[in-house]
From TrEMBL:
Native source species: Brachybacterium saurashtrense
Annotated gene: pheT
Leading EC class: ligase
Protein's name according to its UniProt entry: Phenylalanine--tRNA ligase beta subunit
Region (Disordered) location: 74-96
EC number from the UniProt entry: 6.1.1.20
Cofactor entry: Mg(2+)
Length: 859
């Protein structure tokens, strides 16, 4: 994220003298440049100018010589904490005593003094302290201690503002040194969206601040003089013009290798988040931050022209400036020359240079590179080599193609100004840049898209303010040519967004839509919520798992060959390479969630989920890819719809381990297969449907402890809507689940469709019920639901409820038979049932079961 020092920003746009970082951040946020952070002044407290009045050198026993210095820091601050004697009436204390270890100053010099209470960079607080037999009442500061970098004159030690009494400096002892040295600079860090790459520069942010406030803006690129003539000494060949559209090379000779970066530049680089290195490198970084054009400097003595821009060859390597040797990819764009064996790689274009031609402490002649690289190529190279850089951040977002020549000259001028030397009279400028394509926009288009009325003047002024050339295209349209620094403006909607942004997002009213009366949740929506609420009220926890599964899940759940649940849809661009399939059953993703929870320390699991499952269509086909230029035709939409997998909503739960917490009353019982059936019934009952259970063998359930779940459809047909029971032991082992873990899965949409559309109100019973228990011996093949149906027929209108509470098999019953025990509740709405009525009903139930399924009442 770019950091914007306010004093630097103020060079390009008129800032109010009282503007704070918060105010600037607020103004920028109105145009979409969100504040990321605000950094206040790094130095606070009494930092003042002082004059050295007396300097006494005191050798120490450790061989070190320190200076005991008397410093005049102005009448307001002159207090001598080292002098123990009481002052006489009328006597003044004209100076402070300070211990200093530096030796690059003399009596009469003006220095920078941090008095007690000052806080320096790094949260270093200054206080009076006793040392070397004195009380040092402050500190005489160096550039490093103030965050200004080394002395530009190359001297080690403290900052000397002026030598002797005749300094010529407009500063007196006691003056505020924070303002004098620019140490009160505040910094705003902003968040730049990928389409606004021009805001990775002071030039771009200053322009945006001007748009936000109307402040006068001066384009720094317009003030640079390009003095060199075309036809430079450095040859350049562009073998890949798609990757590099323009390449500028400008030479500078005779640079002083010992020249230091000026303090103001080093300070600005530091505030912007970059570390000062050397004059040449710092200048290229400074121009990049200021104008937005990345630059690279080559040591001309190490360069053997011509420079060639091409793609990498298989097997080529490059040692980049971070001292890492990288194997190059054929898609990488390279800068090369004729050095070494005749074709040497100099750097990854737009990302990072190589160490062979880097500038050093002995470099006197340089070649400055400023180019326009393809954003996609740079972005892919930076990611391929995991090598993000300040240059790649800008190139991959788009750099103004008109900047290379201007930026190269600006950097050359700064180097000559502070390091001597001479700019070459000729410059190499290869390649060409096409002008931005014009976009036609109607004068009323912004109003139609945004929803508020913009005047013609607002539309035209906004587009011209961002640098567009606007021409009339008939009465109601404009022909708009975007500026070179806005490669993101390519369609009409881009221009509409700029109009809305510059006029002000605050002008767009916030109006909540009014919901039409008489509408609410649909029947299906209410049913889905009711099913989930029923399970949550029963103590289960709802979870949400992604619908993507691994191919191995089908084997883990013991699906047989040919099972329809193996026909899963494969995603072409999965989130994870090991989970490319869409689930065909909800337990495929719910069981891994249960395993994960148990692996994180849970001792039991009781979870459920409502989610989509996807079934491959019988006639699987590839969906067509329509052209992006226009809306797909109805035929294309129909083909896309036909290619989609069948999708339904399922409800599933997994129950394992203890059914509740331990207590003094004893251990809670474990979840079991009966609980899975009960939870499935609860969910169906909340929807308004009743489940019928039939024994079945179906993966992933235990073959003898599973049941098929059915509902009675509106047409009277019994349809399968799911299964429940205890999970197979091998499945329990595969997912590390507790013994006897159970589960169920329902096709929730089918259950909702089978529920009656009309909800009947049940009358409140007035008379007491009669309870009767029955145990019928039937064949193993007879489902319990068939016996229940016969009981209801035999009881007639007196039947209120029938509940299966026991199933028994054994030698007492006989081979191939089972005993089903039911609790039957009888009630009359008219009167209390008599013994005769109960007995007659009991006889009718026994007869009905015997007639329907051959059941015999167990003695």
């Amino acid at each position: 994220m770019p950091r914007i020092p306010l004093t630097w920003l103020g060079e390009h746009v008129e800032l109010p003298s009282t503007a704070s970082a918060l105010e600037v951040a607020t103004d920028l946020s109105r145009l979409g440049l969100e504040e990321e952070a605000i950094f206040g002044a790094q130095v606070t407290g009494p930092l003042v100018v002082g004059r050295v009045l007396e300097l006494v050198k005191e050798p120490q026993k450790n061989g070190k010589t320190i200076n005991w210095v008397r410093v005049d820091v102005g009448p307001e601050h002159n207090e001598d904490a080292d002098d123990p004697k009481d002052p006489q009436p009328g006597e003044e204390r004209p100076s402070r005593g300070i211990i200093c270890g530096a030796h690059n100053f003399v009596e009469g010099d003006l220095v920078v003094v941090s008095l007690p209470g000052t806080v320096l960079p790094g949260d270093f607080a200054i206080a009076a302290r006793k040392t070397y037999g004195h009380t040092s009442d402050g500190m005489i500061c160096s550039g490093e201690e103030l965050g200004l970098g080394p002395d530009p004159e190359g001297e080690d030690g403290i900052i000397v503002l002026g030598r002797g009494h005749a300094t010529g400096l407009a500063a007196e002892p006691g003056d505020d040194a924070i303002a004098l040295l620019g140490l009160a600079d505040e910094v705003v860090e902003i968040n730049v969206t990928p389409d606004r790459g021009y805001c990775f520069s002071m030039r771009g942010v200053a322009r945006e601040y001007s748009h936000a406030t109307g402040a006068a803006y001066t384009d720094p690129a317009a003030t640079v003089e390009t003095t060199a003539q075309a036809g430079g000494e450095v040859g350049v060949r562009l073998e890949d013009e798609a990757g590099c559209r323009r390449f500028v090379a400008l030479g500078v000779t005779g640079v002083d290798p010992a020249a230091q970066t000026p303090r103001w530049m080093a300070r600005r680089l530091t505030l912007a988040g970059m570390r000062p290195i050397s004059l040449i490198v710092d200048v290229t970084n400074y121009v990049m931050l200021d104008l937005g054009q990345p630059l690279h400097a080559y040591d001309a003595a190490k360069l053997e022209g011509p420079i060639t821009v091409r793609r990498a060859r298989t097997g080529e390597t490059l040692t980049t400036l971070d001292d890492v040797t990288r194997t190059l990819d054929p898609a990488d764009l390279l800068i090369t020359d004729a050095g070494g064996a005749g074709d040497r790689v100099l750097g990854l274009a737009g990302v990072m240079g190589g160490e062979d031609t880097e500038v050093s402490g002995t470099t006197t002649d340089i070649v400055l590179e400023a180019a326009t690289f393809d954003p996609v190529t740079v972005a892919r190279t930076a990611r391929r080599h995991r090598l993000p850089s300040e240059a790649s951040k800008r190139f991959e977002r788009g750099v103004d193609p008109q900047l290379p020549l201007i930026a190269a000259h600006r950097a050359a001028q700064l180097i000559v100004e502070h390091g001597g030397g001479q700019v070459s009279a000729h410059v190499t400028d290869e390649g060409s840049v096409t002008a931005p394509a014009p976009v036609v926009i109607g004068l009323r288009d912004a109003e139609r898209v945004v929803g508020i009325a913009y005047t013609d003047a607002q539309v035209i002024d906004s587009l011209e303010a961002i640098g567009c050339t606007v021409e009339r295209e008939g009465e109601d349209a404009l022909r708009v040519t975007p500026p070179s620094w806005r490669p993101d403006l390519t369609i009409r909607e881009d221009l509409v967004e700029e109009i809305a942004r510059l006029v002000g997002y605050a002008e767009i009213p916030s109006e909540l839509p009014t919901a039409p009366g008489g509408r609410g949740l649909t029947v299906a929506q209410r049913a889905r919520r009711a099913a989930r609420r029923a399970l949550a009220e029963a103590g289960l926890t709802e979870v949400n798992s992604a619908p993507f599964v691994a191919p191995s899940i089908h084997d883990a759940l013991r699906y047989e060959t040919g099972d329809a649940r193996r026909d899963a849809v494969r995603v072409l661009n999965p989130l994870a390479e090991d989970e490319p399939l869409l689930r065909t059953a909800l337990l495929q993703s719910l069981l891994p969630v249960a395993k994960r929870n148990l692996g994180r320390g849970e001792e039991s699991v009781a979870i459920f989920q409502r989610g989509s499952v996807f079934l491959a269509s019988e006639a699987a086909m590839a969906a067509p890819v329509p052209a992006p230029a226009e809306r797909p035709s109805e035929a294309e939409l129909a083909e896309i719809e036909a290619a989609l997998p069948a999708q339904t909503t399922a409800l599933a739960a997994v129950l394992g381990g203890a059914s509740g917490p331990d207590s003094w009353q004893g251990d809670p019982g474990p979840w079991g297969w009966a609980d899975a059936f009960e939870m499935a019934r609860r969910a169906a009952a909340a929807v308004g449907a009743a489940l019928e259970v039939r024994q079945i063998e179906r993966a992933p359930f235990h073959p003898g402890r599973a049941g098929e779940l059915r509902v009675l459809a509106a047409d009277g047909e019994s349809i399968v809507v799911g299964a429940a029971g205890e999970l197979h032991p091998s499945v329990l082992k595969e997912f590390s689940l507790p013994a006897r873990t159970a589960a169920f899965e329902l096709d929730l949409e089918a259950v909702i469709a089978a529920a009656p559309a009309v909800v009947r109100a049940e009358p409140v019973p007035t008379y007491p019920p009669a309870k009767e228990d029955f145990a019928f011996v039937v064949e193993d093949s007879v489902p319990a639901s068939a016996v229940e149906a016969a009981i209801l027929v035999g009881a007639g209108d007196l039947a209120e409820s029938v509940h299966l509470f026991d199933v028994f098999t054994g030698e007492q019953i006989g081979e191939g038979k089972k005993s089903l025990a039911y609790a039957v509740k009888l009630r009359s709405p008219e009167a209390t049932l008599t013994a005769e009525q109960i007995g007659a009903t009991r006889t009718g139930i026994i007869a009905a079961v015997e007639s329907a399924v051959g059941g015999v009442l167990r003695a």
